[in-house]
Design goal:
The structure is a homodimer of 82-residue chains. Chain A is built from two helices and five strands. Chain A is an alpha+beta fold and 82 residues long. In chain A, a hairpin with a 4-residue loop joins strand 2 and strand 3.
Chain lengths: 82, 82
């Protein structure tokens, strides 16, 4: 299944608990679109969050993020990894 | 050790082999700055590369990337993960 890296901006001041809660909100509904959010990394100072997922499409990733209340600003397929 | 996510733009058309080579160039000298590049993901269509590392500082990450011939456009500490 293709992998995607999506990016959220404007999350300045995000706490560890908030990151956990938003991730949980994604996980709770991800199966409905065949998506799996594997991992997320956050820089609360610049307000940037990176999410790595496996999904059938970028649109499926966005639909889950939107329904969970946090639309991604960018979603990139990442077919190459090392 | 702190984790960092750095981003490279302008890598359109990057191949799997090129990603492997550039990553190898980082790994070859990373210890000199106490850095370890754990993983990288690339989107050759938009030309975006994300690198995850453990390092003493963002400056140390940049020094390795520069010496290996590929300066990062952004380097974010990512103290929060999930």
């Amino acid at each position: 299944m293709p992998q995607f890296m999506d990016v959220h901006h404007g999350m300045k001041g995000l706490t560890a608990d908030q990151l956990k809660e938003t991730h949980k909100a994604d996980l709770a509904i991800e199966k409905e679109e065949g998506v799996h959010f594997e991992k997320a990394w956050a820089d609360p100072e610049s307000g940037t969050v990176y999410c790595l997922s496996e999904a059938p499409s970028a649109e499926a990733v966005q639909r889950i993020h939107e329904r969970a209340g946090h639309r991604a600003d960018e979603i990139h397929p990442v077919p190459l990894t090392v």
